[in-house]
Design a protein that fits this description.
Number of strands: 16
Order of helices and strands: EHEHEEEEEEEHEEEEEEEHH
Distance between the termini: 39 Å
Shape: globular
Number of helices: 5
Largest sheet: 6 strands, mixed
Structural class: alpha+beta
Number of domains: 2
Oligomer: single chain
Strand order of the largest sheet: 1-6-2-3-11-12
Length: about 240
């Protein structure tokens, strides 16, 4: 039932983005109309259509602010779409003075106070999308997290066989984009997947789909064992949640 959801959401697959969007909005239900902030994620099959998708969304829902990005795969409630044309969205009704959209290589200048809207609330938390083609992305993420009063952000990296577009009220590229929230918005986060960098940079010598077989002309598992160390390599289950 639509009224059982805290925030209306929808998702669908179709080769035609208009059909996919129509099915998505039908699933989300009438509560999407009148929201203030929407999250939209589309497969890279629809990347070139993203400006038009955004325009139609605003016309159909009246939601003024949108953030999101392009991905080769999209996760939705009890559903995932990989290597196929699809989109997913969710709409919220937060007060517009409690959030702020940003984008760019330097979304905030060094030392700039992260104030938000007319109420001048400091930014407490952010949902951030990073452009995978930005060379200094780790430094940008680290710096941006330090500018939140909580010191905490969440989000992900766009992925695409094209340009990896992001959304921040319009289509943008490069650096970081997303939305910051004031402490007036209560948010609970949960880690679904993550990773930590280990060892030096390697070259993928052989792979099938998303499975790496060889790194630097060596079996990938041998390289992995070598870099996680003797203790973890004895029991790979211990590596889960640790690296």
């Amino acid at each position: 039932m639509h009224n059982e959801r805290l925030f209306p959401y929808g998702h669908a697959r179709d080769a035609d983005w208009r059909t996919a969007l129509s099915s998505t909005l039908e699933m989300a239900g009438p509560r999407v109309r009148g929201g203030t902030l929407g999250f939209l994620y589309v497969s890279d099959s629809f990347e070139s259509d993203l400006p038009e998708i955004l325009n139609v969304l605003r016309e159909e829902t009246g939601v003024p602010h949108w953030t999101g990005c392009v991905g080769i795969g999209i996760c939705a409630t009890a559903q995932e779409y990989l290597n196929e044309p699809a989109l997913a969205l969710m709409v919220t009704d937060f007060p517009e003075t409690a959030f702020h959209l940003f984008a760019g290589l330097e979304p905030y200048q060094p030392g700039e106070e992260l104030a938000m809207g007319e109420a001048d609330h400091p930014s407490y938390f952010a949902i951030v999308h990073g452009d995978s083609q930005t060379p200094d992305l780790p430094d940008l993420v680290r710096d941006f997290a330090g500018k939140m009063s909580s010191g905490f952000i969440t989000g992900g990296i766009s992925s695409s066989r094209a340009n990896g577009a992001q959304l921040a009220d319009k289509v943008v590229h490069g650096g970081l984009s997303g939305v910051t929230f004031s402490a007036k918005i209560a948010i609970v986060t949960r880690l679904t997947q993550g990773c930590s960098p280990i060892g030096p940079i390697h070259q993928i010598a052989e792979a099938k789909s998303n499975v790496i077989a060889r790194l630097d002309e060596r079996p990938a598992l041998d390289v992995f064992y070598e870099e996680i160390g003797d203790i973890l390599s004895r029991d790979l289950q211990r590596a889960s949640g640790f690296i």
